[in-house]
Design a protein that fits this description.
The chain is 48% helix and 0% strand. With 124 residues, the chain is mostly helical.
Length: 124
């Protein structure tokens, strides 16, 4: 993906005092880019918009269902969630997809294996 132009260049093109086409030629940017910047500035939008597509997941419509599973059974595993999601809603999702979705939602919980505590003793 191409890098975004700096805000300084955007401001100089908008405030050039000439037509958008003349400013584009002067600053070495595309005519369409300059025209869009000037038009948006007239509408009150001087800063750049966020680049790229918004992050979406096919699990977004099933958020309430997944949260309900976790609320009903706090110790449910991702494999169990995957099976129930497939059986009850018909949505096929990998374990990694479910883990990533829960991680973005801030709902991860690392379980510690049941081990006895380390024994510490004084050395001298």
């Amino acid at each position: 993906m191409a890098r975004a132009y700096s805000q300084d260049l955007r401001d100089r093109v908008i405030d050039a005092g000439t037509s958008a086409r003349a400013a584009a030629e002067r600053f070495g940017i595309g005519v369409a880019t300059a025209v869009v910047w000037v038009r948006r500035a007239r509408e009150g939008e001087r800063s750049a918009r966020k680049q790229g597509q918004p992050r979406r997941s096919k699990l977004d419509p099933h958020r309430d269902y997944l949260l309900g599973l976790i609320e009903a059974e706090p110790d449910i595993t991702i494999a169990e969630m995957r099976e129930r999601l497939r059986n009850e809603t018909g949505v096929l999702a990998s374990a990694g997809m479910i883990w990533s979705y829960l991680d973005r939602a801030g709902l991860t919980f690392k379980k510690r294996p049941p081990t006895r505590p380390n024994r510490t003793a004084q050395t001298s």
